[in-house]
Amino acid sequence: MMLLLNRRALPLAAAGLLALSFPAYAGVAGAPQQVAAVQPAAITIDNFAFGPALTVVTPGTKVTWTNKDEEPHTVTSASGGAIFKSDALDTGDTFSFTFDKPGTYKYFCSIHPHMVGTIVVK
Ligand SMILES: [Cu+2]
Protein backbone atom coordinates (compact mmCIF):
# COMPACT_ATOMS: atom_id res chain seq x y z
CA MET A 1 0.00 0.00 0.00
CA MET A 2 2.84 2.39 0.82
CA LEU A 3 4.22 1.91 -2.68
CA LEU A 4 1.12 3.62 -4.05
CA LEU A 5 1.82 6.81 -2.11
CA ASN A 6 3.69 8.59 -4.89
CA ARG A 7 4.28 12.32 -5.21
CA ARG A 8 0.77 12.89 -6.53
CA ALA A 9 -0.91 11.08 -3.68
CA LEU A 10 0.99 12.67 -0.81
CA PRO A 11 -0.54 16.16 -1.10
CA LEU A 12 -3.98 14.58 -1.21
CA ALA A 13 -3.22 12.61 1.93
CA ALA A 14 -1.96 15.77 3.58
CA ALA A 15 -5.13 17.61 2.56
CA GLY A 16 -7.19 14.82 4.07
CA LEU A 17 -5.30 15.10 7.33
CA LEU A 18 -5.75 18.87 7.26
CA ALA A 19 -9.49 18.41 6.74
CA LEU A 20 -9.63 16.02 9.68
CA SER A 21 -7.70 18.44 11.85
CA PHE A 22 -9.66 21.49 10.81
CA PRO A 23 -13.25 20.49 9.96
CA ALA A 24 -14.01 24.01 8.75
CA TYR A 25 -11.67 23.42 5.81
CA ALA A 26 -13.08 20.02 4.89
CA GLY A 27 -15.27 21.39 2.09
CA VAL A 28 -12.40 23.31 0.54
CA ALA A 29 -9.98 20.39 0.65
CA GLY A 30 -12.56 17.88 -0.52
CA ALA A 31 -13.78 19.70 -3.61
CA PRO A 32 -11.35 22.44 -4.63
CA GLN A 33 -12.88 22.77 -8.11
CA GLN A 34 -16.38 23.45 -6.81
CA VAL A 35 -17.06 27.16 -6.53
CA ALA A 36 -20.44 27.12 -4.82
CA ALA A 37 -22.47 24.10 -3.84
CA VAL A 38 -26.19 24.41 -4.50
CA GLN A 39 -28.14 23.03 -1.58
CA PRO A 40 -30.72 20.42 -2.54
CA ALA A 41 -34.31 21.13 -1.63
CA ALA A 42 -36.75 18.68 -0.10
CA ILE A 43 -40.52 18.66 -0.35
CA THR A 44 -42.73 16.32 1.64
CA ILE A 45 -46.02 14.95 0.39
CA ASP A 46 -48.27 14.31 3.36
CA ASN A 47 -51.95 14.50 4.17
CA PHE A 48 -52.81 15.22 0.51
CA ALA A 49 -50.57 18.28 0.33
CA PHE A 50 -47.11 19.33 -0.87
CA GLY A 51 -45.08 20.93 1.89
CA PRO A 52 -43.92 23.54 1.54
CA ALA A 53 -46.38 24.48 -1.20
CA LEU A 54 -44.03 27.22 -2.40
CA THR A 55 -40.31 26.53 -2.66
CA VAL A 56 -37.81 29.10 -3.89
CA VAL A 57 -34.47 27.76 -5.14
CA THR A 58 -31.44 28.93 -7.08
CA PRO A 59 -30.74 27.60 -10.60
CA GLY A 60 -29.19 24.16 -10.56
CA THR A 61 -31.02 23.03 -7.44
CA LYS A 62 -32.08 19.39 -7.25
CA VAL A 63 -35.51 19.19 -5.69
CA THR A 64 -36.63 15.88 -4.20
CA TRP A 65 -40.20 15.05 -3.29
CA THR A 66 -40.87 12.27 -0.77
CA ASN A 67 -44.29 10.72 -0.39
CA LYS A 68 -45.00 10.22 3.31
CA ASP A 69 -48.70 9.71 2.71
CA GLU A 70 -50.51 6.39 2.74
CA GLU A 71 -51.90 7.19 -0.71
CA PRO A 72 -50.05 7.21 -4.04
CA HIS A 73 -49.31 10.66 -5.46
CA THR A 74 -47.53 12.09 -8.46
CA VAL A 75 -45.44 15.18 -9.08
CA THR A 76 -46.60 16.48 -12.45
CA SER A 77 -45.54 19.73 -14.06
CA ALA A 78 -48.46 22.01 -14.83
CA SER A 79 -46.35 24.31 -16.96
CA GLY A 80 -46.50 23.95 -20.70
CA GLY A 81 -44.66 21.01 -22.19
CA ALA A 82 -44.81 18.78 -19.08
CA ILE A 83 -41.30 19.64 -17.96
CA PHE A 84 -41.29 16.96 -15.28
CA LYS A 85 -43.61 14.08 -14.48
CA SER A 86 -43.16 11.37 -11.89
CA ASP A 87 -44.68 7.94 -11.85
CA ALA A 88 -47.18 7.24 -9.08
CA LEU A 89 -45.18 7.46 -5.86
CA ASP A 90 -46.07 4.97 -3.19
CA THR A 91 -45.37 5.55 0.49
CA GLY A 92 -41.67 6.30 0.92
CA ASP A 93 -40.99 6.76 -2.78
CA THR A 94 -39.09 9.80 -4.00
CA PHE A 95 -38.91 11.82 -7.20
CA SER A 96 -36.18 14.32 -8.06
CA PHE A 97 -35.81 17.02 -10.68
CA THR A 98 -33.02 19.53 -11.15
CA PHE A 99 -34.19 23.03 -12.00
CA ASP A 100 -31.60 24.76 -14.16
CA LYS A 101 -33.57 27.62 -15.72
CA PRO A 102 -35.06 30.53 -13.78
CA GLY A 103 -38.83 30.66 -13.81
CA THR A 104 -42.00 29.70 -12.00
CA TYR A 105 -42.91 26.03 -12.19
CA LYS A 106 -46.35 25.03 -11.04
CA TYR A 107 -47.08 21.36 -10.44
CA PHE A 108 -49.86 19.15 -9.17
CA CYS A 109 -50.75 15.55 -8.37
CA SER A 110 -52.36 13.97 -11.40
CA ILE A 111 -54.31 11.60 -9.14
CA HIS A 112 -55.61 14.37 -6.87
CA PRO A 113 -55.48 17.53 -9.01
CA HIS A 114 -56.43 19.76 -6.08
CA MET A 115 -52.93 19.08 -4.72
CA VAL A 116 -50.79 21.88 -6.14
CA GLY A 117 -47.35 23.35 -5.54
CA THR A 118 -44.97 25.87 -7.01
CA ILE A 119 -41.21 25.95 -7.49
CA VAL A 120 -39.69 29.37 -8.14
CA VAL A 121 -36.19 29.30 -9.60
CA LYS A 122 -34.30 32.61 -9.40
CU1 LIG B 1 -52.18 12.76 -4.93
Ordered list of secondary-structure elements with their pairings:
Layout: H1 9-21, H2 26-30, E1 41-46, E2 49-51, E3 54-57, E4 61-67, E5 76-77, E6 94-99, E7 103-108, E8 116-121
Parallel strand pairs: 1-4, 3-8
Antiparallel strand pairs: 1-2, 4-6, 5-7, 7-8
Bound molecules: copper (II) ion.
Strand order of the largest sheet: 2-1-4-6
SSE order: HHEEEEEEEE
Percentage of residues assigned to helices: 10-25%
How many extended strands?
Answer: 8
Category from helices, strands and their pairing: alpha/beta
Distance N to C terminus: 48 Å
Mean pLDDT: 80
Number of helical segments?
2
Looking at how many chains there are and whether they match, the oligomeric state comes to single chain
* Beta content: 25-35%
List ligands, each type once. copper (II) ion
How much is the radius of gyration in Å? 20 Å
Shape: globular
Which parts are unreliable, with pLDDT below 50 for 5 consecutive residues or more?
Answer: 1-7, 9-29
The major β-sheet equals: 4 strands, mixed
Your description of this structure?
- With 122 residues, this protein is of the alpha/beta class.
- It is built from 2 helices and 8 strands, in the order H-H-E-E-E-E-E-E-E-E.
- It has helices at 9-21, 26-30, and strands at residues 41-46, 49-51, 54-57, 61-67, 76-77, 94-99, 103-108, 116-121.
- The strands form 2 sheets. The chain has a 4-stranded mixed beta sheet, with no helix packed on it. A 4-stranded mixed beta sheet has the order 3-8-7-5, with no helix packed on it.
- The protein is globular.
- The termini are far apart.
- The structure holds copper (II) ion.
- Copper (II) ion binds at residues 73, 109, 111-112, 115.
